[in-house]
Amino acid sequence: MPQSRRPAPPLDAAALERLALRYVERYATTRGKLYAYLTRKLRERGWDAAEPPALDELVGRFAERGYVDDRGFAESRAAAMTRRGYGARRVAGALRAAGIAGADLGPAESIVADGAVTSAVAFARRKRLGPFARTPLDPASRQKALAAFLRAGHDMALARRLLALEPGALDGDDADQAGLSLS
Question: What domain of life does the UniProt record list for this protein's source (predicted)?
Answer without folding.
Answer: Bacteria
